[in-house]
Amino acid sequence: MTTAGTGKPIRWATVTIGASELGRNRSAITDDDGRYEFKNLPGGRYTVAASKETFIRLTYGQTRPSEPGRPLVLTAVQVADRIDFALPRGGVIAGRVFDEQGEAVVNVTVNALRPRYAEGRRQLISQTGSATTNDIGEFRIYGLQPGEYYVSATMRFPGGNVETPPSGFAPSFFPGTADVSQAQRVKVGIGETVQGTDIQMTPVRIARVTGIVSDIEGRPLANLNINLIQRGPATEQGVSFTTSAVDGSFSLSGIPPGQYSIDAREPRPMNVALGDSGTVIQPIVVDGADILGLRLTTTRMAAGTGRLLFDPPDAPAAARAVRISVTPADPSVFRWFAGQANVAQDMTFELEAPSGVLLVTAGLLPPGWMLKAVRVDDKDVTDSGIEFKPGAVVKGIEIELSGREPKLTGRVHDVAGRPVSDYSALVFSQNKDRRADRRGRYFAIVRPDQTGMFTVTGLPPGDYYAIAMSYVDQNEAASPELLESLEVDSVRLSLAEGDSKTLDLALASR
Question: How many helical (H) and strand (E) elements, i.e. helices and strands, does the chain have?
Fold first, then answer.
């Protein structure tokens, strides 16, 4: 492992390797000469990544920012030598946060955010660790990939019953606006330090929210964790939290204007029946005035029970590692932690979740297996979701896994018919509605292995487009606008369960 441009060895960097055949990832730390080694690896398709603070994290085969890495295909007896990394220095955004009088604002959290299309919608995602302003309002965010960033500053107030001043500062974007559409983006090059990213924060009246939380029988709930979450068009983030008192009362302080929800969930004691614990998700709008005496009453959690099925019917050895989870079917709904369940010895499961229409899925699947269908009362609800009602238990959920996942492989050539070894291949559903699936089941972006061949597995049976491009930013690759523009240059194909198809794609000129 060396520093890009100088060739100087990097010691104490972290190298991580993972593959489905390996189980959990392994890590190694480079020595004084920048060397690392992994021994006794089974054959498989591996992802290898290297990272160290102040440097840009790279995945094996990654030559440009925001592109996927390349898989490293190994046989059980193969020795892969010189899997080297030359890590570039990360970019830096530095500046100062101040108020309308030019005075420094200290202990402000500053983030560098980049747009990313994920889970069916565009979001602003933090690309690195946040920075906190010092005693003179200065901040420095380091280790950034090259690209354009939105820089946000957020002042935090302690939650609970801590008294706060009547005014504070609204979350602001560079150079000094609460509206992300009015924010200026900051362009950062490889290893570049961008100075002068100064943010003026606007003073606003901040509010206090108080209330009482009780259960469905009207009894006050003590020691309940109360979370306040801000929900905007691009981001959701926790703002404040507290714990209810013996009489169920709670107080949240230092809240700037905005749209929020108060989320709380009763812990489920061992002796409480499935679905008998409660939850509350209460939207509120804060406009600067205190909201006092709010009364929150929990509703019963929803619940579900079911069984894993397998096709072919013999359960694989790693079936107990499968995790069942649920998430809102509507991409516009905030993705709160809705519920997760382990699989019992007899392949049954039970889970709790807030009410709503939820997608049920299975994760940590054994190698070579994929989600085939989710059914309730013989109806396929894989993509439509299941309506979970408060206090009700949805019984008989069947989650079928298939050991015959389709496999798509291929190579790419240029306009002269010559093989291309460096590219990105996109495969996406012809059904536009499925492109917004929160689980990303109908979309894949891959890069070729060291032989120049790409491999895509895990796609559900269906009709797809496939295209190869010299470069595509993986943060934007799933954008509906981009995918629609690529349709005309793409190859059409159909995948059935158990299919194994090979494509020969021409590199797109765009």
Answer: 1, 44
